[in-house]
Amino acid sequence: MRDRLMPVTAAALPRVVVALMVLAAPCALALPVTIEGAGGIFADVDATAGRYTARSGELKWTFAGTLAAEASSIARREGEDRLGAYQELSFRWRDGAALSGSIRAYRDRPALLFRITADEPVADARVLRFPRFTAFPKALRHFSYANHEFAPASFALEETATPWLLYDDAGHAAVLSPASHYMTASLYGDGETVIASGLNPGVGALPAGFTYATLLVFGTGVNATWDSWGAALTALENARRPANDADTGLRYLGYWTDNGASYYYDYDRQLGYAGTLEALVERYRTEGIPIRYLQLDSWWYSKSLIGPEGRSGGPKNESLPGGEWNRYGGLLRYEAHPALFPEGLAAFQHRIGLPLITHNRWVD
Known about the structure:
The chain is α+β, with helices and mostly antiparallel strands. It is 15% helix and 34% strand.
């Protein structure tokens, strides 16, 4: 990553002079300091008002919020990171503690990256909710994912770490999501009065130097905007997408015993679990159905009785014998339960002659 001061050209001189006047004399008339990115995307900060905006000229959408105090130390720079060349606005303010923020607009991506840093220890993580937009197009439709099994689609704004899609009937769209600390991040708001990004309510005090980031992508076409956001987020994390035939599970047909399947926490009572699956594999071979692997879901190993909400529960399937495998809790031992595989998992895998894909939950 590299940063450098933007070169001053004759055309840019008036804006630079104004920016320098704002920095040198905060009491003087303060004009917003602006940066520009791909697709007619702009971001600016007004020092005196503490107001920041993100604008898409193509969509004619504006998202705006206000800091808790005046902005100071405003600087405009250019540099390069994993998303490419950018222009950046950086600034400081106070909200019970010294905070610094930045907004980056990218030359080749219709994206804005927001970052906020606690320059001092913070007693309440809510002060790091940035951006926090209170002005934005009001007639937008909403889409996100609920914080339940398999992340079901929701045509509402779920206050979790899910990305939020905002769109209209013309196919204009924006995707907002956390861009760091994904396991403890959360978006907030109703899409009518507030849209904000921060950490979840379980996070309290934070140390000096803590930084949180948020990504906002604009586009035309819902699918195209999702793709643009996904490409930006994976690039930001330096993630490499595998090919769609990269391993056995992607390349070939297999049999799954996950939630909703016939043998999810269930089996033929006369054959037992191992015998049921051995009979299934043999039937598929007899019928010429070329399964190339078998998936074993969460039923095959030992678990606690404590569920994901922290409450104690009973058997997962009450019609089956109780035991450490027949539970919906966290992992206790990642090995085949002897009630299901008396000879062990390796012996079972050897008998069916197929690779196994095995599930695991959280560690209790």
